[in-house]
Amino acid sequence: ADAGFYALIGAAAMLAGVTRMTISLTVIICEVSDDAASLLPLTVTILTAKLVGDLFNASLYDAAIALAGWPYLEHEPPHCFASACAEDVMTADVVDLAEIE
Q: Which UniProt keywords apply (predicted)?
């Protein structure tokens, strides 16, 4: 195969490992390369890079959010909320805003 193809696969693997993007990165790289035949190797490479990256640490975006100290909701709730219902945490006194006329 062509050296450019291997460079494309390597660049896709690096981007997938750092950003953890999968479908969007596959589409972007496939569109940029204008080579539909590279779809299967790109998909396998990107999924493998994402899975290996997930085994070691968080993505670049997750790490940047944590370093900045921004609030962030995880994909799964904490274990202490597993059996909680909305009525367990809600308040009876609802705060509302007055309508402006």
A: CBS domain, Membrane, Repeat, Transmembrane, Transmembrane helix
Cα separation, 43 vs 3, in Å, equals 19
The pair of structure tokens assigned to 70 is 């921004």
Domain boundaries, the chain: 3-68
Cite the DSSP H helix spans in 36-78: 39-56, 60-68
Judge whether residue 35 has pLDDT over 90.
no
Rounded to the nearest angstrom, the gap between the alpha carbon of residue 87 and the centroid of all alpha carbons in its chain is 31
Q: How far is CA 18 from the centre of its chain?
A: 10
Closest CA to 9 of 39, 45, 33, 35: 45
> What is the spatial distance between Cα 49 and Cα 22, in angstroms, rounded to a whole number?
9
Q: What is the pLDDT of residues 43-94, one digit of tens each?
A: 999 999 999 999 999 889 989 999 999 988 877 878 888 888 888 878 778 7
Answering whether pTM is above 0.85, one says: no
